[in-house]
Recover the amino acids of this structure.
């Protein structure tokens, strides 16, 4: 990461306490955050701040739609953004739901702050096509 261009992550989750926790963990590592409770808020943030967002933490079970469906909308806005699906589901189910989609890393709930940060940092620097780690 560059010292002059801060990293910004969009957190999309309908659970406010989880959004707050993710925000605290990421900001402690000097990563700026934008929080969205649903797809509509996330689309507004993506359109308004598209050039400054490098990654998205995407809950798979949003109240308005499934995360894997919303993934396509995100990619239509910015194909270079690193997407990290998040779910309490088994990692195999996440992989199945995102089959054929480029993702930067899997985040399974619950997660530790250390493993979350390792996955995010690796995913932000990963080249397309490289394998991704699982957060446990």
């Amino acid at each position: 990461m560059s010292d002059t261009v801060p990293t910004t992550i969009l957190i999309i989750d309908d659970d406010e306490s989880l959004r707050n926790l993710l925000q605290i963990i990421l900001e402690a590592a000097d990563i700026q955050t934008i929080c969205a409770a649903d797809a509509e808020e996330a689309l507004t943030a993506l359109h308004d701040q598209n050039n400054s967002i490098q990654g998205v933490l995407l809950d798979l079970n949003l109240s308005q739609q499934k995360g894997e469906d919303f993934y396509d909308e995100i990619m239509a806005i910015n194909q270079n953004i690193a997407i990290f699906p998040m779910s309490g589901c088994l990692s195999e189910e996440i992989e199945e739901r995102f089959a054929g989609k480029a993702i930067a890393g899997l985040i399974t709930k619950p997660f530790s702050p250390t493993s979350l940060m390792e996955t995010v940092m690796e995913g932000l620097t990963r080249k397309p096509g490289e394998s991704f780690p699982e957060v446990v």
